[in-house]
């Protein structure tokens, strides 16, 4: 993957990584999506978390600007 290219969450080529999860978390994911859906589930969960983090970071700025 090109390190000098910026991609938005969900865009760009895929890249394999190793992820460690507790047995209970992995079991719950597999029960929801099956063995072949774990990567897609984790991808979507990561995208949702990034979106939430971005909103959490933007909210204080928005409130400060609104109160000016």
Short description:
The chain is mainly α. The chain is 59% helix and 0% strand.
The H-and-E topology, N to C, reads as HH
Number of strands: 0
- Overall geometric form: extended
Structural class estimated from helices and strands: mainly alpha
Could you estimate the helical fraction of the residues in percent? Answer: 55-70%
Sequence stretches where pLDDT stays below 50 over 5 or more residues: none
Radius of gyration: 17 Å
- The helix count comes to 2
What's the pLDDT, averaged over the residues? 90
Strand content: under 5%
What is the rounded distance between the termini?
43 Å
Could you describe the largest sheet, including whether it forms a barrel? Answer: none
Describe it.
The chain has 68 residues and is an all-alpha fold. It has a domain at 25-66. Helix content is 59%, strand content 0%. The chain is built from two helices and no strands. The longest helix has 29 residues, at 38-66. The mean pLDDT is 90.
Set out the fold topology.
Elements: H1 23-33, H2 38-66
